[in-house]
Amino acid sequence: MWLLAISVWGAPRQATASEAYQQRRERISVSFRNASLAEVLQRIKQQTGYYILYNSDAVRGIGGISFSKADAPVREVLDEALRGTRLEYSIDDDTIVIRVRSGGGNASAPQKAPDKVVSGRVTDTAGAPLVGVNILIQGTATGVVSGSDGGFSIRMPEGRDNLIFSYIGYVSQTLSSAQTRLVRLVQDEQEIENVVVTGIFTRKKESYTGSATTITSGQLARVSNRNVFESLKNIEPSLYIMDNTLMGSDPNTLPDMQLRGITTFPSESTGVNIKGNYQNRPNQPLFILDGFETTAEKVMDMDMTRIESITILKDAAAKALYGSKAANGVIVIETKRLAGNQELVTYTGSIEVSMPDLTSYNLCNAWEKLEAERIEGVYTSANPQTQVDLTKRYNALKAQVLGGLDTYWLAKPLRTGVGHKHTLSVELGDSRKLRAMIDFSYNNVAGVMKGSERTVLSGDVNVSYRKKNFLFRNILSVSNTRSDNSPWGDFGDYARMNPYWSAVDPQTGQIARWAYDEVANPMYDATLGTLDRETYTSVTDNFYAEWQATEALKLTARLGIAVKRSDADEFYPAKHSKFATSAYESTSMQLRKGSYQLDNGKSSDISGEIYANYAKNWGRHYLYVNAGGRIAENTYSAYQHYAEGFPNSQTADITFARQYAQDKKPVGISSITREISFLGTASYSYDDRYNVDLTFRESASSLYGADNRWSSAWSAGVAWNLHNEPFLRDQDVLKQFKIRASAGLTGNQNYDTNEVLATYLYYTGATYHGQTGAYLSKMPNPALKWEQRMDYNVGADITVHRATIAFDYYNSVTENMLTDVVIPTSTGFDTVKDNLGKVRNRGIEAKLSYTLWQGKQGFFNLFGSIAYNKNIIINLSESLKAYNEKMMAQAQDKSNSTPVLIYQDGMPMNAIWAVPSLGIDPTTGQEIYVRKDGTLTYEYDAQDQVVAGISDPKYRGNFGFAAEYKGFGLSATCTFLGGGQRYNTTLVNKVENVDIHYNVDRRVLYGRWQTPGQNAMFKKLGSYTDENGKQHDEKTRATTRFVQDNNELTFSSLSLYYEFNPRLISKIRLKRLKLAFYMNNIATLSSIRIERGTTYPFARSMSFQLTGTF
């Protein structure tokens, strides 16, 4: 491969040929000792100001040059440098051309000059100069690269007039010499995948040794336009975004997620459940937005049209940049930069429709429920008089059912949610120096439960100013989010209502307060003016400055300020069903009906960082060094007030309360965290074949104990580009074959500051001599350290013909895990936080994409990926024995019917513990258990529990296609998971441990044991007396009978779009017009039948979107 090189580090500036001539020096002084020819030519260029053009292959390997010249003419120096080589030179105007001698001519003899020199400047669409753009004369191997200001100058041979401009991440252009005075390159979305954005600097992917996945805005848009997490869930299987089986599709619930496995024990509650507090999720990745830390909530509420790319940093070589916060991985989000120097207005609008998905429910209808009650014996009594009453009641209900009463309660609180989203972006750009972009967005997400909504209103101002080698950029963002939870209450309350109860009063047709006797109608609560709302307002200002001191040296600085204010109101009037209990029957309790909970919170973040990076090419060598530091402070506080006594439902304000809630008082939490860190990175590449990355970060944080303020993170990575080896370079089949490996140590500090510090509380109920006392609320541990994660990773990136393959194997060990250690009660405390225990995560990740067809009018791509993870506890602290004993006691409780969480060496952290079961004895209808010694018994003993499964899937992945033809686009994605298990709580709670007075699963009728000799999966319905006269009415406990394999296949997304031909829409003054249609969560096939979305149902969604640019 031929590459004509002009030294990138020489800082040529935009100039005319005559100006360049005036700057040249014709006599120089030099001294060389065993120098390479490339180094000699570079020195000549630096001292003279000439442009020097040469073929890199021609000068490669020429070295051992030693001579000295003092105040010598340039030609004399060149003659000496080229002595004994097959090279010659020519000088014309401001350019020296080195070429292989033809016919043995004199190296110093003047050559025929090309007929013209073409000069120009290359920038991006915002007017920023692009350094290192490859500029090639079409049809030849001759070319140059642009300098630090984007300037270039090249000699055009006779008969040649076109130049090819190419740069990583940008669309290549072929232009005639007359069009090259100012060349603007446009970013190429497909090429963005070849760049790794770390949030601190940007690296070429070919020389990067870390494991990172880059997702472009186009890839995000192909799977969903709802929010970032919805798209990531369908694209990147290594990032496990879990379905919330309780909250389903609730638009106001943040998803839980983990990257490459669980690394931390769940943190204990602070005892103050502040609404809207999403801090300290121990397994959550770190989020970086435009170089600054941000929250998952902010990311979920982002306008997706603003996103340029998302990079997921996985292994140590990639994430060690973020030191003690990077153990769980890092997700880097870059928003779109200013696009050009013309005024543009872009509008994106969409209508989103959400439809409830109730396919997981299998409840009885009115007749089935009545029959289940009859079998249970609800209408049977040994007392004759009681039997008469029960028979009358049964016959009355039967008549109503036969008359058509069959209330489908599940539909009552639901709707088809119709939301809408609007984004307006205005770009102002009549100057190459000053650019501005203003974005406004409004997003209304309508949930499938009536009254459930999330509304986000935001505005962003992005200003960029360039002055010579200085760049200043500021992004100001203001957003307001309001989340309204449904006044219709808990969806589970509707699932348990009997279908033979009426939802409305048959006399008035109005919603009845009581569904039956003293059973409250949950629909009635929605008519009372309940309030359950959360709001927050955030203001973020991110400032970035850059100084290109030399072509090799760049200094950058960032300053970020973020302020957030949140409020939450939860009001229930006196007639609400939660007060319709016997506890509120007395006169004094009547005055306490009605409640109000008010939460207020605020937080602020300020951070500053400064970095210097140095990049230099010489010959086959490339060196990149980055060093700098960061300082930050975060403060957070929240307060909570409880009040009661609201006789009037119209007084939805806490000031109308009669009193503070009984045994309640205002409570709150607060924290302040400060940190400082220093970062150093170095990257070296030889001949684009051998690459090394080194990272070291030293951090100090107030989160650590006083004895361990400082902590270190480091990584080392290597990569080998086999495709650049001489034996593979001259072939077209294997386009890329990179092998990489890395190791490193990072940390996790997703926990509360109160875990470390000595925290005191006041005795508010008593005084001593008029003074208020204080007591230590937690035992501090000044020796507490950060959790450490040691990562090892090997991987390969391969492109063969039309196929692209990526493979990673990782082995991670987390130690110093934060756990509760039991201490003597004589200290005044039961436990103290300490660093104990180790957990290992091992896994494999693989991706494959194949281009079936690629042409000028479109493409057709197939893709698939899979991620496998195995989590094991390898060294459990002795202190967790007390925790396990507590869990075992809970398992022994006869009222407990769900598995407890027990930790044991050699077992996964998310293991499902249950007593082995052989099923239901066909003779007696009782469950047969297996003891630890292998004997069989009818008696349940929690001490016989074994690991029956793993609640997280062992593997998950996706597959699909993306196609485009003549402006039409179609893509589909399916996701799958398997290898894990789930404890089927639906079978336990709605088939066996049923409260027959409420609705139950249909399997109560068809799957339970009823007669001797019957093979059945479920026990006999109701209580009974065995042949020995023993009464059996205990609850079903945690057994392996209900641990089922969890394998799922989901048709997760479908998108169809059409982008109009620009020539057609230009007649109506449009630059771009695109129509799109999306469907998400279309269908799911599962190996387990379990109710999903028990508090808030799941939903299918579709969206129609229009984008236009003027």
Automatic annotation (TrEMBL):
Compartments where located: Cell outer membrane
Protein name: Secretin and TonB N terminus short domain./TonB-dependent Receptor Plug Domain
Membrane topology annotation: Multi-pass membrane protein
All copies of domain Secretin/TonB short N-terminal, residue ranges: 50-101
Protein family: Belongs to the TonB-dependent receptor family.
Keyword list, A-Z: Cell outer membrane, Ion transport, Iron, Iron transport, Membrane, Receptor, TonB box, Transmembrane, Transmembrane beta strand, Transport
InterPro entries given in the database record: Beta-barrel_TonB, Beta-barrel_TonB_sf, CarboxyPept-like_regulatory, Plug_dom, Plug_dom_sf, Secretin/TonB_short_N, TonB-dep_OMP_SusC/RagA, TonB-dep_OMP_SusC/RagA_CS
Main localization category: membrane
Single GO BP term: iron ion transport
GO cellular component: cell outer membrane
